[in-house]
Structures are given as structure tokens and as C-alpha cells.
Write a structure and sequence with these properties.
2 copies of one chain form a homodimer. Chain A is an alpha/beta fold. Helix content of chain A is 47%, strand content 15%.
């Protein structure tokens, strides 16, 4: 797992070099000009889909949905997609319900795009277009480099589709930012023992980084067996904040951009409740934080798009999950009860 | 909270009597024949929206999305809805981000429907159509009868929109089923002390009752301060099942219908891991369950639509949350850190 985490700058660099296939798919999407985009995915890929939803809605204004594959596989009712687009995310390309959803959508006339690390997979065979992750084999059951590659491909796709120069420029800075994020490894290693006996925690963020919170919580569950729940910071205030008592651990993402001031307010409120705040930020450390994992700011400064912050922001959380699993005596590469390809229908 | 739980059969009865306004809105939706339906909601209402999504997708085949209100309020990018429909759910009708999303959607040409308990609310003023919950004042911060009323209104709406006779017939049976579900109160009261010291749990279901799992987990968080996370049973197998060790509590819904056999398999797998299984079912008790809250079957037998099972299925979970909060010394009507109307933007 640790080796795969450290490969991430190289993976993203390779992806950026393979921009030509992304540009071709973006052209097809632009010509289709869909009324809606539906994502279908499971597990980590579902978290990447949440990122894709925010990205497309906020950049292109096209409403997006996350498919409930059960509607097709359990209830056998394929959605009428009438000229829509379906984006299917599966690292292995073998998740049966995702593949089945894509086939049903294609029969309904949807334009289908698969994002996968496996060129010979069932998913790659089922979609009109395939975008490869170029991440190399991922051996750890806990996905890390394929998740970061999924975010990057989605950002490349939307950047080309919307012809967003700021996104494109930001993308070029990602390998260096990822490299700098990896420099937080010693901090993650020193932090881990403090949470050796943590049984539960909340993970929170808002906007683009809601996906980061979901993915960080999943890594903590998979590799550390911590009951970590991710909540958008807005939803947190609508009820779940009741669980936060003195010493309750909350992992909070506060990245620069439009969500920052809201996250600072939520952090202050959590600190007031006595929460044990673990923060990941590329801004000033938050008052009341027990732990700060501080990401570098992009050298381009304020011009770095908030839309790309989820790519480096997940790295300290991956490092923390890795080191926490080690101090807890868990093998992070082979969590109990999991296999690399989960077959649900 | 307990009084409001027991009012639910009467609330649903009143709603069924007010079918005329639902039929009128259903006619407007049928004429619009939208390419997509977007739900916008927060808190418990968001869980009702998940139910609405499954219901519309599986009954009408129209793809649905849950709006990320942040896209409008943080990133100021209203989705281009081109003839779509937006359904906004807010019990108080005063959630600022929900109201703002509706206003933005209406400016984009969407047909907007508000579902609220407050006829004079900002939401009722902002939408083209309003469907009232007729639930009477809800004093407990933890929503119960308004949640059940939201599900019922959504089912009435889709039943009228799709002209689904089976749904309509099933709806008529709901007040009696809810009355029978309330008879589980003594079981919930006797069960509660066993979980007095529970700090965390998973809540799982699939298909229509995924919404039930989300709502049950929210009630446990709000009223008992238990870190309860809801997961679709399919997603559970894609990673989070790693947290389940011997004695780990899992609240599992296994209602009759297409999801049942999958839930039985998941229950067997969880029992094999030594999970402490609390089950809510209207079928045979599940082998390996530590606790069974058994709902009556509708007297119409196998004809009762699975799509309506989430209405009675939430009741035992509400009763369990109520009694658990009492044995834990919490006032379930006024959870710490919460107010009835949460104002997020």
C-alpha cells in the first residue's frame, strides 16, 4: 500500500502524457451535449464518482446523478436515458453490477464511457469509450493510486470538455504537488500512535472535497477497522453533530477555495464541543486542531483551482490510514473480509 | 418523540384523504414528462429523497439525482435543467440552501415541487407546486412522523403519476400496517438495555430500504449519540465489512421483495463474522440474529409492494432509537447541538 501511495506522482504524470485519448472522448461528449450525466461505480470508485458529479455540475452546469445499480440488477428497470451519458468507474473493470448497468444504459441509447485500469476487462468491452488509468498493477486491496488516477482522468476529461484553461494549467502542477504531499509521511507516522485505540470517528469536508472525506473514511474502515463515517459538513450540522462529545475524533479537510471559510466555522464549532480535531489543510493551521497535516500550496498560488485540491488532499489521509493500520497490527494490503474484486449484483 | 411516533398511522390516514392535491401535481409531472428528476433536501429529508429516487427510477424509469446544494450556494453554478423537475423536501420549509437551490432551478426553467409540513414557509412560496405533509406540529428535534409522511406523499405522487394500481392498493393498507408496527414497542423497550453502551454500529439494507437504513442510522446518531453508519448492503461488501469483528453491532433490514434473498445472504455472512445482528424483517427470523423485530405482513400477503415496505420498516427503528436514548439518559426530544431548523447555505 505504501509503495502504491508513493507511485502516485508518477501515475499522474503518465496520465497527463496520455491526454490524447481523453481529448477524443471529451469531443464526443461535447457533441452529445447531454441533459444529464449518470455515474455508476462501487467502493472507492463511487467516491471518485462523487468528485465527478461536483466537477461536472460546477464546471459544465450539467446535472449529474449517481446510479443506484440495484434499480437495474434487483428491480430490472433500466432508466430511460434518452441521449444521456453514463460514466462507469471500476478499477478492475469487473464489478458485475456496474457492467450490467452500462449494458442496460447502452441499450437505452446512452453514450457510455468506462474509466478503468484494466484494458481487457468486461467494462472496457461494454462501453463506447474507455479511459485507462495507466496506474500499473495495484496489489493492495485498499485502492490508492487508482483512486488518484480516477480523479485525474475525470479532471482531464472535464477540462477538455469545458475547455477550461485554469483547470488545464492546474493539472500540470499535480505531479509536483503530489510529490510534496508525500513529504508529509513522517508527520503521518508520528501521528498514528495517538489514534491506536480509536474505534470510531467522523470525517468531514464540503464541496469538491466531500469526495475526499468519503474516500478517507473508506480507507480508515478498510485498513484500520475504524468505524469512520464521512459527512458533508453541511449535513453534519443537520443532526449527526449530536454524536460529537469531548475527545470525539473528527478528521476535517479545509482546503483553499470557496468551501474554506465554512470549514473554518465548522472546525471552530467542533473545537468548542471538545472534539479531537485532525485537520488536513493547505491554508493556515486551524485553531483548536490536535493534529495538522499541512499540504503545500501550489506554487502558482491563488490561481490553483479548488476543483483539483482533492487530488493532493487525499494523500495525507492515505498515509495516515497506512501508518495507523501498521501500529494497530493490521496488514493494510490484505484487510480481513475483502478481495480486490468484489462481485455484487 | 414517542407521541409523534405513535401518531404516524393517523398522519398517513390524513394524507391518504388529501389525495386530490397529489393527483393534480402528478398530472403536471406527467405532462412535463421530464428527462430527469432532481431531489434537493438535507437531514432526514435527504433520506426521504433517496427513497424517492429508487421509487421514481424503478417505477417510471426516469433517472434521478440528489442535488449537491453546494454547487449552487458555494460554487454559484445552477445546473441547466432544461425541462427537468426538481423536488425539494424540507419539513420546516426553511432550509436556506434547499430554498436557494429551488429558486435557481426555477430560473433555469425546471418545474419545481415542494414537499413540506409548513404551508407558509419560504419553500412553499418558492415552488410551482406544494405538497403538504399534514403531519401536525412536530416538536421533537428528531423527525419521525414527518419522515413517514414524506415517504407516503412520494409514494402517492408516483402511484398517481405512473397510474400504478398495485401501489395505490398498497397505500390504503399503510395505516393498519403502521398501527401493527407500533405494537413492537414492548420488544424495542426490552431490547434497548442490551445496547446501552453501544458506541458504534453499522446499519444496512438494499434497494428501497437503503433509505430506511440511512434514516435509522440518523435517528441513532441524533437521539443516542451512537456513531451509526448506514451502508447499502452491496457497498458494505466493497470494503466497509472489514470493520465487522466479533460482537460488532449491525442493524439489518430484510424486507420481503427482491432485495430479501441478498439481505439473507449478507446476514449469514455477518453472522459468520460474529456480528451482533439486530434485524428488522417482515419475513421469517434470520438465523444468527441476536434480536429480531418482526413486522407483520400486510394482510394482502404477497401482493403488498416492496416499494412501500420502507414506511412500516422505519417504525421499529424509531422505537428502538427512542428507548435506547431513554436508557442512555438522553432526552430524545432535544439532542445536544441541534435545533429543529438547521440553517446551512
Amino acid at each position: 500500500m505504501l509503495r502504491e501511495i508513493t507511485e502516485q506522482p508518477a501515475v499522474v504524470g503518465r496520465l497527463l502524457d496520455a491526454a490524447r485519448e481523453v481529448v477524443a472522448v471529451a469531443g464526443a461528449l461535447r457533441r452529445r451535449d447531454p441533459a444529464a450525466v449518470i455515474f455508476t461505480a462501487r467502493g472507492s470508485s463511487d467516491n471518485a464518482a462523487v468528485y465527478g458529479k461536483y466537477l461536472i455540475e460546477a464546471t459544465l452546469g450539467i446535472p449529474c446523478g449517481l446510479a443506484a445499480p440495484s434499480v437495474v440488477t434487483l428491480y430490472e428497470r433500466p432508466p430511460r436515458l434518452r441521449g444521456g451519458v453514463v460514466v462507469a468507474l471500476s478499477q478492475s473493470g469487473e464489478s458485475p453490477d456496474v457492467v450490467e448497468y452500462v449494458r442496460a444504459a447502452r441499450r437505452q441509447g446512452a453514450l457510455t464511457v468506462g474509466v478503468t485500469n484494466a484494458p481487457a476487462s468486461a467494462l472496457a468491452g461494454a462501453t463506447h469509450h474507455t479511459l485507462l488509468l495507466h496506474a500499473g498493477p495495484e496489489h493492495s486491496v485498499a485502492a490508492t493510486k487508482t483512486y488518484v488516477a480516477q480523479l485525474t482522468v475525470l479532471a482531464m476529461l472535464v477540462s477538455a470538455w469545458a475547455r477550461e484553461v485554469a483547470l488545464e494549467r492546474g493539472l500540470m502542477g499535480l505531479p509536483a504537488l503530489l510529490e510534496q504531499a508525500l513529504a508529509l509521511e513522517p508527520v503521518a507516522r508520528e501521528t498514528a500512535p495517538r489514534y491506536r485505540h480509536m474505534e470510531e470517528c467522523l470525517v468531514t469536508a464540503r464541496g469538491y472535497n466531500y469526495a475526499t472525506a468519503l474516500e478517507a473514511a473508506l480507507k480508515l474502515k478498510e485498513t484500520c477497522y475504524v468505524a469512520a463515517e464521512a459527512l458533508s459538513a453541511a449535513d453534519l450540522l443537520h443532526g449527526p453533530i449530536a454524536v460529537v462529545e469531548h475527545g470525539f475524533p473528527v478528521l476535517l479537510f479545509a482546503l483553499r477555495g470557496r468551501a474554506l471559510s465554512f470549514m473554518q466555522q465548522v472546525a471552530a464549532r467542533l473545537a468548542g464541543l471538545g472534539a479531537e480535531l485532525i485537520t488536513i489543510t493547505d491554508d493556515e493551521p486551524l485553531p483548536g486542531a490536535a493534529v495538522t497535516l499541512r499540504l503545500p500550496q501550489a506554487s502558482s498560488g491563488s490561481a490553483f483551482p479548488e476543483a483539483l485540491t482533492p487530488v493532493p488532499a487525499i494523500v495525507p489521509a492515505q498515509l495516515l490510514a497506512y501508518h495507523l493500520s501498521v501500529v494497530r497490527g493490521v496488514n493494510p494490503d490484505v484487510p480481513r473480509g475483502l478481495r480486490k474484486v468484489t462481485r455484487t449484483r
